[in-house]
Design goal:
Elements lengths: L11 E2 L18 H7 L8 E2 L5 E2 L5 H16 L15 H17 L12 E5 L6 H10 L2 E6 L2 H12 L2 H4 L2 E5 L17 E6 L7 H14 L11 H4 L4 H4 L4 H13 L6 E8 L5 H10 L4 E9 L2 E9 L3 H11 L1
Parallel strand pairs: 1-9, 4-5, 4-7, 5-6, 7-8
Antiparallel strand pairs: 2-3, 8-10, 9-10
Helix pairs in contact: 1-2, 3-4, 10-11
């Protein structure tokens, strides 16, 4: 696939406001009759809203999980997807956008062509119980994945999903990160090279901050007080490591950048999602300190939500040419 990829170096590149990536399968409104055919249980949650349109209550965690199962089955052929009630439930369309923009990033380093070599390998940091990025990444582009997490129970659930999808299981390796303080160390092995790394880091700095964020989301959905709802923790819940860490996303990403400098030639593009624009100056300073060869910031927009990814590489043009020749 040949595409034209814009330059995004050291600045936020604009995207069409409120639109998914052009290759994202989840454009427009949900086709609920079709999705119910893929996941019959979704029909129990679909109602006609105040605008006369079919929808679900997005504050209902069971409804959101049923929608995710339907989307993954209908669009990617993924069977048996489920997560425990205490784990974070990812919005599938937004997660797919990150994958597609990373494909563009690779194409920008490969004369506009998205590499689909059998040697392609991606490292997903903090895959969680949902394993969403490897599932979409392999389904869309045939990339192999190593998916890591510090939580053994989350990886056990991810393995259950893979067991239900034997074709994907051959291409997705789950790996426990033995040290909660480490990111790459302990999971990147001596004989491994990755074309991409990706991460959706915990973005809150404390449990209190995470709770406030959940409260705002509930209010945006028309709920007066999340504390009055029996299931308030479920849809916007998640394990601690999924939602917050000491210092928030800035501290986590800075640590990721520092560790990436210890394996500079083992990966072509390191990357991470960045939730808060206020985090960017600190990230750029950290990238400067480790002397990356190049970094790019790519803006993403889904509805009212604004996000971005930051990617960096230590490889110079000669090294990049050698990488393309050997792996792509």
């Amino acid at each position: 696939m040949r595409i034209k990829t814009p330059k995004h170096q050291s600045a936020v590149a604009p995207t069409q406001a409120g639109k998914f990536h052009p290759r994202n399968r989840h454009q427009g409104r949900y086709d609920f009759p079709r999705l119910i055919q893929a996941e019959a249980a979704l029909g129990n949650f679909v109602n006609v809203n105040a605008y006369g349109e079919q929808s679900i209550d997005f504050a209902d965690s069971a409804a959101v999980k049923a929608l995710n199962r339907a989307l993954l089955n209908d669009n990617y052929g993924i069977q048996g997807w489920d997560i425990p009630s205490q784990n974070l439930c990812p919005p599938v369309p937004g997660r797919a956008d990150y994958v597609h923009y990373l494909a563009d990033l690779l194409a920008g380093s490969n004369n506009g062509v998205i590499p689909k070599s059998k040697m392609m390998q991606v490292l997903d940091i903090g895959t969680g119980a949902n394993c969403i990025y490897p599932l979409i990444g392999y389904s869309e582009y045939g990339w192999d994945f190593v998916a890591t997490d510090i939580n053994a129970a989350s990886l056990a659930n991810a393995q259950t999903i893979l067991d239900a999808n034997p074709k994907l299981a051959k291409h997705i390796t789950l790996r426990l990160q033995p040290s909660p303080a480490a990111i790459f160390k302990g999971v990147v092995r001596d004989n491994e090279w990755f074309d991409l790394t990706m991460c959706n880091p915990p973005f809150h700095a404390s449990l209190a901050e995470a709770s406030e964020g959940a409260q705002r989301k509930w209010q945006n959905l028309g709920k007066q007080d999340a504390r009055d709802e029996a299931h308030s923790a479920l849809n916007f819940g998640g394990q601690d490591a999924e939602l917050w860490c000491e210092g928030g996303e800035q501290a986590f990403i800075k640590r990721m950048i520092t560790e990436s400098a210890q394996i500079p030639t083992r990966c072509f593009w390191f990357s991470t999602l960045v939730s808060k624009s206020a985090t960017l100056p600190g990230i750029y300073e950290a990238l400067k300190l480790v002397n990356v060869h190049e970094h790019k910031t790519i803006a993403m927009s889904q509805g009212q939500k604004q996000s971005r990814l930051v990617a960096w590489t230590f490889l110079n043009p000669v090294q990049q040419a050698g990488w393309r020749k050997l792996r792509w």
